[in-house]
């Protein structure tokens, strides 16, 4: 049984200590760029990358341990796994990027002259191969890129996010993976120490002069102290995280509607391939509703972990989650580019508004204005840097850029964005209900069908069930529905 409490305490000590050192590692990395021998600069980069990954994983793990609600714990476990996958991409990489990653470069350096002539080279090579083997084993054992994408980007079809979330069972498995990953990262730092030791023995200077500084600005902890005085805030957050039944209920409804839609399309004649717009409209609405429900719950989980932060480094990394989560959700909900906006959920909803529904159009305009205040292109640029430890375009580590963004965070402004976002979520939820009510009203008013027409429709529906390739349960449901309509209308078949 994993001692989660002991690991939590160790993680807190780890992030506190490393937060004081990370800027020094970044400064040393910057100073050594272009210096010879190459392996010295590579060792500085690997140490910097490993330290940041340890900080990131420690932050997620602490949040997992402190989460009191199953949903919050699952959310932080998702981020823990996503962090591991993103770390693997930075360290070893995938496909074409693999040749540019730090461990590949160090492996090449160990096998090249003059390192290959060192008496310590066999030991270096052995340590390196052991590290890469362990990292490959870990990443191939349940750390999935698709799951990382669902965590950092959500999905156009929210059922995939829901299915992944409920599949996460407990903290035990996550703890074991975190321990294993931490050991590998520690081994990487030891490898860097050994490289520098070898260089020192050969009379090569391994130190550089730089101005030492700390990431701790004190502003985040002051804000946390101030917010902690608000007794209502924890109540609101706990309420959101405890009441996650709407997520389950709407995910189930969405699943049933998708199955029904697939069944209808499957049984349509060759001459009638049109989908049912009524079903599609409800699917869009439910998918939107599920998106905003996830957004709200995720924001509550992040806010809780931010308020529980004990160091500035931990608080900064938790606030980093705000940016990643908000922009991911808003990319689907509204879009940060013209192309994203055209394909967005919000655009789909606007298309459903009846031409003469002026009140709905006015409400849509007001919500649109709110979106434009929050959805800023710069946020997407920041989010891209925050989410990706490895830059695919430059084939370089993003850690120095991430640290710079963290150090220059404005926590009050970031929390203000969260407040605006939650307001938009609430307004969108109300708006969805208003649109559905209007569509229902129109359907009722336009139902000017004669008794004979309705009778013919029911007969057609009854006859078609006998031709449909569908389960008995579906036929029974159709039959029951016809019975209800007959009872209401007193129509005899």
Radius of gyration: 28 Å
Helix content: over 70%
* Beta-strand residue percentage: under 5%
What string gives the helices and strands in order?
HHHHHHHHHHHHHHHHHEEHHHH
| Low-confidence sequence ranges | none
The total count of strands amounts to 2
Q: How many structural domains are formed by the residues?
A: 3
What is the end-to-end distance?
66 Å
Category by helix and strand content: mainly alpha
| Count of DSSP-assigned helices | 21
Largest sheet: 2 strands, antiparallel
The mean pLDDT is 84
State the strand order across the main sheet.
1-2
Q: What is the 3D form? A: elongated
Write a brief structural summary.
The chain has 493 residues and is mainly alpha-helical. Helix content is 75%, strand content 1%.
Sum up the structure in keywords.
single chain, 493 residues, 75% helix, 3 domains, 2 strands, two-stranded antiparallel sheet, mainly alpha, elongated
């Amino acid at each position: 049984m994993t001692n989660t409490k002991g690991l939590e305490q160790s993680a807190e000590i780890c992030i506190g200590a490393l937060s004081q050192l990370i800027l020094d590692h970044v400064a040393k990395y910057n100073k050594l760029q272009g210096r010879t021998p190459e392996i010295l600069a590579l060792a500085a980069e690997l140490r910097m990358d490993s330290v940041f990954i340890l900080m990131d994983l420690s932050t997620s793990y602490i949040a997992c341990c402190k989460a009191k609600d199953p949903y919050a714990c699952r959310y932080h476990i998702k981020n823990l796994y996503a962090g591991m996958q993103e770390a693997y991409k930075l360290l070893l990489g995938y496909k074409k990027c693999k040749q540019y990653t730090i461990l590949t470069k160090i492996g090449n350096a160990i096998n090249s002259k003059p390192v290959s002539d060192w008496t310590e080279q066999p030991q270096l090579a052995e340590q390196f191969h052991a590290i890469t083997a362990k990292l490959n084993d870990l990443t191939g054992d349940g750390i999935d890129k698709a799951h990382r994408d669902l965590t950092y980007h959500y999905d156009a079809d929210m059922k995939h996010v829901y299915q992944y979330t409920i599949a996460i069972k407990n903290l035990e498995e996550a703890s074991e993976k975190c321990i294993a990953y931490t050991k590998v990262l520690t081994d990487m730092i030891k490898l860097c120490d050994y490289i520098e030791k070898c260089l020192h023995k050969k009379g090569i200077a391994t130190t550089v002069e730089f101005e030492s500084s700390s990431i701790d600005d004190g502003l985040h902890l002051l804000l946390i102290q101030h917010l902690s005085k608000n007794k209502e805030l924890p109540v609101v957050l706990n309420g959101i995280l405890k009441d996650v039944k709407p997520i389950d209920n709407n995910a189930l409804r969405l699943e049933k509607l998708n199955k029904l839609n697939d069944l209808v399309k499957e049984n349509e004649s060759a001459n009638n391939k049109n989908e049912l717009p009524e079903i599609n409209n409800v699917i869009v609405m439910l998918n939107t509703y599920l998106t905003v429900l996830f957004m709200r719950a995720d924001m509550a989980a992040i806010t809780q972990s931010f308020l529980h932060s004990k160091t500035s480094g931990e608080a900064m990394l938790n606030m980093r989650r705000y940016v990643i989560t908000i922009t991911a959700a808003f990319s689907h909900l509204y879009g940060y580019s013209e192309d994203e906006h055209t394909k967005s959920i919000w655009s789909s909803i606007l298309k459903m508004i009846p031409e003469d529904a002026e009140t709905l159009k006015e409400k849509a305009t007001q919500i649109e204005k709110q979106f434009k205040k929050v959805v800023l292109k710069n946020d997407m640029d920041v989010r891209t840097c925050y989410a990706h430890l490895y830059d695919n375009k430059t084939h370089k580590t993003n850690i120095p850029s991430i640290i710079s963004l963290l150090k220059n965070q404005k926590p009050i402004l970031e929390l203000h964005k969260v407040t605006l976002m939650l307001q938009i979520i609430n307004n969108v939820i109300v708006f969805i209900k208003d649109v559905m009510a209007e569509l229902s009203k129109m359907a009722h008013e336009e139902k000017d069908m004669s008794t004979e027409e309705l009778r013919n429709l029911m007969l057609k529906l009854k006859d078609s069930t006998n031709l449909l390739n569908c389960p008995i349960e579906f036929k029974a449901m159709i039959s029951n529905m016809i019975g209800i309509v007959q009872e209401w209308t007193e129509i005899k078949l």
